[in-house]
Amino acid sequence: MWYHKPAINEELLQSLPNLKVVASAGVGTDHLDLKLLFSYGVKVSNTPFIVSTDTADMGMALLLASSRRLLEGHEMAVSPDTEYFPADWLGVEVSGATLGILGMGKIGYKVAERAKAFEMKILYHNRNQRKKEEESAVGAVYCKKVDDLLQQSDFVLLAMNLTPQTHKLIGKSELELMKPTATLINISRGLVVDQDALVEALQNKVIKAAALDVTYPEPLPRDHPLLKLKNVIITPHIGSATKKTRWVMMEEMAKSKEAGLAGLLIPREVL
Amino acid sequence: GPGLKVISTLSVGFDHLALDEIKKRGIRVGYTPDVLTDATAELSVALLLSACRRLPEAAEQVKSGGWTTWKPLWMCGHGLSDSTVGIVGLGRIGQAVARRLKPFGVRRFLYTGSGPKPESAAEFGAEFVPLTRLAEESDFVVVTCALTPATQGMCNKDFFGRMKKTSVFVNTSRGAVVNQEDLYEALAQGQIAAAGLDVTTPEPLPTDHPLLSLRNCVILPHIGSATYATRSAMAVLAAKNLLAGLRGEPMPHELQL
């Protein structure tokens, strides 16, 4: 299945008594009721590793685009109303700034590798602290408390799984802990953020800006305030959107399905 | 006027200065290298990513309602993983760009210029190649060279014709290094996948310029060094250059004529 359709519920599973395996595209499994599926004896697979690089690239792309005001700049450059480029039109440098990564899994770590080359200071929070060698390879400093990370970061990047524990992890108080000059970047899942609190924080300049590849729902309703805010970039969940990666995902899904139907060990099984 | 003693430019490029005339008149020139390297390299990478992952297009689809549902191959861009990056002009900015691109999984760096630079290239294992080979073998081409009589119009029909259909072209040097009509044709005919330009000729482009109509061309208003920190540093340096010149003292950064 691609994205979160069809919705897998009791009714659907009862109507498909021969269903053996569900192959899901992407790494997230928050859209699947795993308990329910397993109770019907259905196996589940995902595509965990292949999406990491492109998604990390996207995280950096959003971070840079936001800080250097790329989309605004592009509009100015192509607008028929622009007569000259004002000399005092400026952005903020990424080099030397502090990046706080919430969720240092495969994707979070790859973002850290990229950010290091921009001489960014890297803070991170993760369920488990990473090994010393992994930390020093990217110069990342562990923050046991999320609050510490939020208070010190110029950019906060969300790269964790959506679970009951991370649901609405970033709410009103978390946003208030962030610097007023800080930017929130989300490449994980929309529901990790309390979206209404985010809108308020952006409107009241509690934080400077946001760059989101994911929202809730997707797409947002046409009249949603996030679509109107000048300090927000929204992309349509394209973290893994390169032809190469999508083809590998399709191959992996096909292999998982074949293995599942043949009763063999499933390559990317979600347990 | 005859009293002109010093020219202090707020840039590292000096293609806008008539150096022969300036030298004849014994006028000194100050410029601002180094302080703007990081900001410009950063912007070059930002532009490359915006072009190859189709950021302006994608963001517009979100706002316009063009994004209805999710399809596997919709809005797909080109990844950097396992790619070959060709840098035209491995100077300070070119090296800073390569440094930033390295962790994106770039497999190979190529570069071209007036001559090989083994010490600079060593950090990236970059191979010195002729311009034609760089065009043929690169998945991403980043132009960071100075504008000189030799580089004027260098990126032309022949150059774009050699590039891969899936490749992305980025120019953050000077507009005149690129033959804009040839670039337009290459993009319109699908000879290359996308382009990102921080510089054009002129700036801004006239409102009816064909490059402005292309979905796969990201154009920025010459903001390579446009950050608060960098422009402040450039301004201070330019002032210091000017004052030193007027006092007949050595400048922090004087252009050797």
Automatic annotation (TrEMBL), chain A:
SUPFAM superfamilies to which the protein is assigned, alphabetical: Formate/glycerate dehydrogenase catalytic domain-like, NAD(P)-binding Rossmann-fold domains
Claim: Transport is one of the keywords in the record: no
Annotated keywords: Oxidoreductase
Residue ranges annotated for the D-isomer specific 2-hydroxyacid dehydrogenase catalytic domain, each copy included: 2-263
Native source species: Vidua macroura (Pin-tailed whydah)
Family named by the database record: Belongs to the D-isomer specific 2-hydroxyacid dehydrogenase family.
GO MF assignments: glyoxylate reductase (NADPH) activity; hydroxypyruvate reductase [NAD(P)H] activity; NAD binding
Segments forming domain D-isomer specific 2-hydroxyacid dehydrogenase NAD-binding: 60-239
Protein name as it appears in the record: Glyoxylate reductase/hydroxypyruvate reductase
Any one cellular-component term (Gene Ontology): cytosol
Keyword Oxidoreductase recorded: yes
Automatic annotation (TrEMBL), chain B:
Span of domain D-isomer specific 2-hydroxyacid dehydrogenase NAD-binding: 45-224
UniProt xrefs under CDD domains: GDH
Keywords from the UniProt entry: Oxidoreductase
GO molecular function, one term: glyoxylate reductase (NADPH) activity
UniProt keyword Oxidoreductase present: yes
Segments forming domain D-isomer specific 2-hydroxyacid dehydrogenase catalytic: 2-255
Domain of life: Eukaryota
Record's GO cellular component terms: cytosol
PANTHER family in alphabetical order: 2-HYDROXYACID DEHYDROGENASE-RELATED, GLYOXYLATE REDUCTASE_HYDROXYPYRUVATE REDUCTASE
Family label: Belongs to the D-isomer specific 2-hydroxyacid dehydrogenase family.
Protein name: Glyoxylate reductase/hydroxypyruvate reductase
Species name: Vidua macroura
Upper lineage: Eukaryota, Metazoa, Chordata, Craniata, Vertebrata
